[in-house]
Every structure is written in structure tokens, then in C-alpha cells.
Design goal:
The chain is mostly beta strands. Helix content is about 10%, strand content about 45%. The longest helix has 10 residues, at about 185-195.
């Protein structure tokens, strides 16, 4: 399987799969708030609840916390950083991850997504991989295939918000592949990691 290059996460590159919650967004209205002490970025992301289409419509909007071990090592540009063999999706809800305690200049987690294939599973030949930095949160659109959380370099706590009805097939569908997809780091990532680890 041909390696996939991990690219820095931007709304422009990610927009087919969801939204990036980041103060670099220049496509939203920004107002002054909190008596002038804050800039408020309006509507950077939305939470979708489509459980009316699920087997059991009743659901709960839930925050979960992920205390993640680092699963993505820091490697030189061009070397394989991870092999992706598992993707999941949430057919009736968005899912938003927000890292806590990571800085804006350090790569914090990988965002791996894939379009649907004709069999309604993931298109493993068309994975996209992005590097999320420490002050970037993301929302996966409903029904978008994405990898379980993959954190870079150090233990990381993230909040996750999504709707759930407690039925696995409605809440989270998982697919695996016997031919894992290698992901290689990019020069941008290597430079960012090097500067963050100083
Ligand atoms: N996406 C991810 O890391 N995992 C969640 O979907 C989950 O609820 O397990």
C-alpha cells in the first residue's frame, strides 16, 4: 500500500470531512466579546444530531474524556510514523475532539479520514492524513470514516463531544483492513516537531 503523506491540518484541506476549530480560521465572523477581552469566532463548528434516523431515536449529547497515550512516534521526514488499520464512523452524529494542555506550536494528534467506498466501507486507497497542532480542535462530520484518536509525542487528554443512544451499531461502526496504510511524516511536521521538542 502506497504511503500517505501527513499534511498540516487546515479548514480548507479538511472541509470535505468536517471542521477545524482554530483561531487561524478566516472564513468566519469574529466579534469582540467579554468586555473587549476576547475575540469570539462565530460558528466555527456545529454539532449534528441525526438520531431521528437511527434504530432508537432517543439519544444524549455527551462529553467524554480521552486520556490518550502517545501512539505516533516522532520520526524524521519521509519515514513511516504509523500504519493505519482501523477506521470508525458515527452515522448519526458529529464528533468534536479538543486537545487540552498542548501548545499551539506542537503537533498533538493525527487526523486520518477516508471517503466511503462502493461497499459503504472506507475507501482505504484514498486516506487523507492531517497533523493537528495543540490548539486545534476538530469536528468529524457525521458518517465520516476516521481513525481512533492517534496522539503525537506525549500523553494527551482530549475532550470529545457527540450524541449517543447506547446502541453500538448506531453510535460507532468500525472497519479494519489486513493491509494497513503507512503514513509518512512531512518536512513541515518534522520541522514543527523538532522546534517543539527543544
Ligand atoms: N474517534 C475515537 O477516537 N473514538 C471515539 O469514536 C469513541 O467514542 O471511541
Amino acid at each position: 500500500m502506497k504511503p500517505v503523506l501527513a499534511l498540516p491540518l487546515t479548514q480548507e484541506l479538511f472541509q470535505s470531512y468536517g471542521t477545524v476549530l482554530d483561531v487561524s480560521r478566516d472564513d468566519v465572523t469574529v466579534i469582540t466579546a467579554n468586555k473587549g477581552s476576547a475575540r469570539k469566532y462565530l460558528g466555527v463548528s456545529e454539532a449534528l444530531n441525526d438520531y431521528s434516523q437511527a434504530s432508537v431515536p432517543h439519544c444524549t449529547g455527551r462529553w467524554n474524556l480521552f486520556q490518550s497515550k502517545p501512539t505516533v512516534p516522532i520520526v524524521p521526514a519521509g519515514q513511516i510514523m504509523i500504519r493505519v488499520d482501523t477506521l470508525e464512523r458515527h452515522p448519526y452524529t458529529t464528533q468534536t475532539f479538543t486537545p487540552m494542555g498542548r501548545s499551539a506550536d506542537e503537533p498533538a494528534y493525527l487526523v486520518v479520514v477516508a471517503p466511503n467506498a462502493d461497499d459503504d466501507g472506507p475507501d482505504w486507497t484514498n486516506l487523507k492524513v492531517f497533523i493537528a497542532f495543540g490548539t486545534q480542535a476538530i469536528t468529524y462530520d457525521a458518517n465520516v470514516w476516521h481513525s481512533p484518536m492517534l496522539t503525537i509525542g506525549k500523553p494527551t487528554v482530549l475532550t470529545a463531544f457527540n450524541y449517543e443512544n447506547g446502541i453500538m451499531q448506531d453510535d460507532c461502526q468500525v472497519k479494519t483492513t489486513s493491509t494497513p496504510v503507512p503514513v509518512v511524516t512531512s518536512n513541515e511536521l518534522e520541522a514543527a516537531i523538532e522546534s517543539a521538542s527543544k
